[in-house]
Amino acid sequence: MPTTVSAHGMVVTPHPLATAAGVDALGAGGTAADAAIAANAMLAVVYCNACGIGGDAFALVWDPAEQHLHGFNGSGRSPAGLTIDAVRAAGHDEMPTRGPLPITVPGAVDAWVQLLDRFGRRSLADALQPAARTADDGYELTAINARAIAASMPSFNDAARAVFGRAGDAGDTFRQPLLAASLRTVAEGGRDAYYGGAIGEEIARAIGAAGGVMTADDIAAHRGDWVEPISTPYRDVEVATTPPNSQGVTALMALNVLSILDWPVGAPLSAERLHAQIEALKVAWSERDRCIADPDRGLANPSVLLSSEHAAWMASRLSPDRAHRHEPINRPGGGTVYLCAADADGMMVSLIESNFMGFGSGIMGGSTGIMLQNRGAYFSLDAAHPNALAPRSRTLHTLMPGMILRDGRAEVAFGAMGGDGQAQTMVQLVQGLVYDGLDPQAAVDRPRWVVETEGAGLPLGPVKIESDGVDASVVAALEARGHKVELVEPRTPLMGWAQMIRRRSDGSYQGGADPRADSLAAGL
After folding, report:
1. Tens digit of each residue's pLDDT (9 = 90 or more) over 44-102
2. Which residues are known to be catalytic?
3. 330 upstream amide cis, omega within 30 of 0
4. Which residues of 390-404 are buried (b: 16+ CB within 10 A; e: fewer)?
5. Which residue from 102, 38, 37, 41 is spatially nearest to 76, judged by alpha carbons?
6. Mean of the per-residue pLDDT values for the chain?
7. How far apart (Å, rounded) are the C-alpha atoms in residues 460 and 328?
8. Is 277 helix (H, G, I), strand (E, B) or coil?
9. Measured between alpha carbons, how far is 239 from 340 in angstroms, rounded to an integer?
10. d(CA 161, CA 180)
């Protein structure tokens, strides 16, 4: 697929209707922030199987006026009444993945409002009305939508079954009038309509009816944070992401290790390159799981984790000839959308938003039509664990938007969905762009690999590699090093959906849209 080029702005998302909503916002005089929020709102409708206004959002924004990169942490907290003892008393030895207990306060709507207040030109209503119309009028289900709905149906509460039980098959028209009404309520009433109004009250009522403890006060207390991004040098660029509780530091640690390995990293998709990438990420995961949690706990110091001394220590644990053992302590997960936008003035937005595991908790917030995230599934019920559940806590978060800076200016906005796979994809994309010199579309098109966890406290699963990326000799060489390898179909959603925009030296933009989703890059 050729790289899309545009002179005056660009939007890249995993669905054509979302890309169109973003481009329309640019065409109406909006900034990249306006475009990103309009696109995200549309995705909350047409990719409700991965994101929505019951989820969280993280973002990076390059402000060309200030020549500064800003970060936003839109992760919600656990309820004030949720404790380890309460979860155990409900019959659980570990955090459940579905139902009311893993629901954390949704942060996406607050994130949208704060991003627009600071970097937008248009109103929240302008951003949300196209999505509300689409939810009311209906849209054509894609194969991705239909598969996700069918797979998730057993986890749905009655309210969700009433909505999605009539969704139909790929190609059918699907309407969500309850969600449309909620979007219009937020468009008219702003964040207070969600966090301090009828929507928050109905969400709390539905959670309580399902056996949860979240209250309207828990929801009303939410406010996301502006944060200083973290970054690390890689060859001749700087790679940036959001700080903990985001897992973004994981990818940066892996890049640091790859930068200093004293053994050859090989050609793209060679056994040497794949082994180096996998091992660097495994050792970075160990560090992530050891210390990343609610930033209020002060366990993760990015300056230490990203120091040259720490990179050297991590690299010293690795061998060019054998895979090292790693025992993860967090859960697998996916169900996220990543999008990026850029405008004619040079503003770039890298935004990621998620319900977490597909439709999240499986709980719809009553008459709101909003599916509620299950981000709390990542908490541990071991009180000594760094990411232990506690009242009003933020869990380790897989969401991690990316930005590449060259000579102190934003050049690339990029990222991917995929739970733990996000860090893996980020490393592969950065090496493709910076090390191998690929253009954005070639970077996202290139066959990828992913290692999935099998569950909390269990060993890593096999290295899954798209079958068009390697031959039998590469598989044999990886297995000789101790990796368990599984070839999977090309362009599988298992590899996540990556999107990318690069700003060229003449001010024009290149876009890369992932063929593993229904992605589209388009511009003005």
Report:
1. 999 998 899 999 999 999 999 999 999 999 999 999 999 999 999 999 999 999 999 99
2. 336
3. no
4. bebbbbbbbbbbbbb
5. 102
6. 93
7. 7
8. helix
9. 16
10. 17
Nearest-angstrom CA–CA distance, 42 and 133: 10
Q: How far apart are CA 433 and CA 331, in angstroms?
A: 30
- Which one is predicted more confidently, 295 or 233? 233
DSSP labels, 211-241: T----HHHHHT---EEE--EEEEETTEEEEE
User: Is the Cβ–Cβ distance between 517 and 50 less than 8 Å?
Assistant: no
Tallying the residues shown for the chain, one arrives at 524
- Residues 390-439 have pLDDT tens digits of 999 999 998 999 999 999 999 999 999 888 789 999 999 999 999 999 99
Q: What SS3 state is found at 367?
A: helix
Cis check for the bond before 157: say yes or no (omega within 30 of 0): no
Helix, strand or coil, per DSSP, at residue 139: strand
Q: Are 511 and 26 in contact (CB under 8 A)?
A: no
pTM equals 0.95
Cα separation of 306 and 233, whole Å? 10
Nearest-5° Cα angle at 254, 253 to 255: 90
Residue 113: both structure tokens together: 């409002």
Backbone torsion region of residue 148, taken as left when φ is above 0, otherwise alpha when ψ lies between -120 and 50, otherwise beta:
alpha
Check if the beta carbon of residue 506 is closer than 8 Å to that of residue 419: no
Choose among 32, 21, 199, 13: nearest CA to 115.
32
Closest CA to 397 of 358, 430, 355, 426: 355
- Name beta bridge partners: 4: 511
Q: How confident is the model at residue 329 (pLDDT cuts 50, 70, 90)?
A: very low
The residues, ordered by sequence, that sit 6+ positions from 492 with a Cβ below 8 Å of its Cβ are 466, 516
Q: Is the sign of the CA dihedral 468, 474, 480, 483 positive or negative?
A: negative
Rg of the Cα atoms in the chain: 21
